[in-house]
Each structure stands twice: as structure tokens, then as C-alpha cells.
Amino acid sequence: KNEVEQSPQNLTAQEGEFITINCSYSVGISALHWLQQHPGGGIVSLFMLSSGKKKHGRLIATINIQEKHSSLHITASHPRDSAVYICAVRTTGSYQLTFGKGTKLSVIP
Amino acid sequence: SQTIHQWPATLVQPVGSPLSLECTVEGTSNPNLYWYRQAAGRGLQLLFYSVGIGQISSEVPQNLSASRPQDRQFILSSKKLLLSDSGFYLCAWSVRVVPNYGYTFGSGTRLTVV
């Protein structure tokens, strides 16, 4: 069974700061997802990664397959970025996702 | 375009009452369908997944059941709710055959059992 750990659990930042959220997992994967969950509960898929790096606007996601580690970066953070960010992995050979517990980000004006 | 609909958004039900949550997908055929639950303070946990009509796999033993009466319809049910069934329920779908497919999530249902 894949164990997914996220850090930190909670993060408070000032508007404009550069933010990093980390995710590590224990077993080989075919894909890693970064998801955003807003206070109302709805979940939006931000990235799906199997190698390297992806960028979308102010969001950057990287993955190191050898080290079983991924990071989500937010540049020039804004209060609207406040949400729970969830890492999820699809273990090789499986349909299913294993989720981390999430990182709650609060960006203060 | 592909969309996923999940309802209701919130639900308050008494202990012992039945439950039916519905999820439908549009714009795709033969999707894999999933029900996840997020209990307070915990990560999302897979409850059921389906690779086709009438095909349901259960990951966690519980008093919930799932059915897939049509290709793009996935229903989560319970005959008698328990307090421990409270949580956030999320439906999702993925393309079945593409090797490295992404997931699309519904907006979720927050269930409170009282």
C-alpha cells in the first residue's frame, strides 16, 4: 500500500510570498496529482505529473521519481490561493488514487 | 466537453435513514467511476470503483453500497445510516484505457448524520 505524506499540514503566508508544499510517497507510481480543495469542498485538479515539471500560471509542480518526492510551488501568493492542497498518487498497475491528508494554506493580505 | 454532476451538495440525515447519492458523467463513454469519502481530519479514501455497468469493487467494508445501472451513472446508497457515515463524499471519473489518464472530480456532497 502506498503511503503519501504531505508537509506542512498547515501553512500561513503573507500575500506575495513564494510557497512550497511537499509530498512524498513510498511505492513506485505511474502518476502524481496535485488537487485544490476550496472551503466549500469542491476539488479541482491542478496537475498530473509522471516526470519533470509542469507550470500553469503562478503554479509550478515538480516530481523526482527516484526520490519519490514532489513539490507544488506558488509564486506571488494571493489570498484567493487559500485552500487545501492535496497530493494523490496512482500506484503502478492500479486504477486507484491514494491521497495525502492535505496542506491547508492561508494567504493573508 | 466532459462534465461530472454530483448531487445533492449538502445533506443532513437522521441515524437509521436511507441514503442515495447520485453522480452522472457527460461527454465520455466507458469511464472508470469512483466514490471517495473524506472523514473529518483524514485524507480521501476510496470506497468503490467501477469499470463497467453492474461491475462494482469495494475497497472498505461498511454499510454503504454502490451501483452502476447505466454507463455514466454511479449511485452510492445505504439502507440505514450510521453517525460514522458523516463526511464529504466525492465522485470521480477517469478514462479507462489511456495509460496515464487524469481524473475529474465532482463537486462533492457533505453528509451530516444526526
In short, what is this structure?
The complex is a heterodimer of chains A (109) and B (114). With 109 residues, chain A is an all-beta fold.
Largest interface: A-B, 22 and 24 residues
How does the major sheet of chain B shape up?
7 strands, mixed
Cα-based radius of gyration of chain B, to the nearest Å? 14 Å
Helix content of chain A: under 10%
- Contiguous low-pLDDT stretches of chain A (5 residues minimum) are none
What's the helix count of chain B?
Answer: 0
Oligomer: heterodimer
| Percent of sequence in beta strands of chain B | over 45%
Order of helices and strands of chain B: EEEEEEEEEEE
Q: What distance separates the N and C termini of chain B? A: 38 Å
Shape of chain B: globular
Main beta sheet of chain A: strand number and arrangement?
Answer: 6 strands, mixed
**Computed structural class of chain B:** mainly beta
Low-confidence stretches of chain B: none
Number of helices of chain A: 0
Q: Averaged pLDDT of chain A, please?
A: 92
Helix content of chain B: under 10%
Helix and strand succession of chain A? EEEEEEEEEEE
What does this molecule look like?
The complex is a heterodimer of chains A (109) and B (114). Chain A has 109 residues and is an all-beta fold. Chain A has strands spanning 4-7, 10-14, 19-25, 29-37, 43-49, 52-56, 59-64, 69-74, 83-91, 97-99, 103-108. Chain B has strands at 3-7, 10-13, 19-26, 32-38, 44-52, 55-58, 64-70, 73-78, 87-94, 103-105, 109-113. The interface between A and B is medium-sized, with 22 and 24 residues.
Secondary-structure blueprint:
The complex is a heterodimer of chains A (109) and B (114).
Chain A: E1 4-7, E2 10-14, E3 19-25, E4 29-37, E5 43-49, E6 52-56, E7 59-64, E8 69-74, E9 83-91, E10 97-99, E11 103-108
Parallel strand pairs in A: 2-11
Antiparallel strand pairs in A: 1-3, 3-8, 4-5, 4-9, 6-7, 7-8, 9-10, 9-11
Chain B: E1 3-7, E2 10-13, E3 19-26, E4 32-38, E5 44-52, E6 55-58, E7 64-70, E8 73-78, E9 87-94, E10 103-105, E11 109-113
Parallel strand pairs in B: 2-11
Antiparallel strand pairs in B: 1-3, 3-8, 4-5, 4-9, 5-6, 7-8, 9-10, 9-11
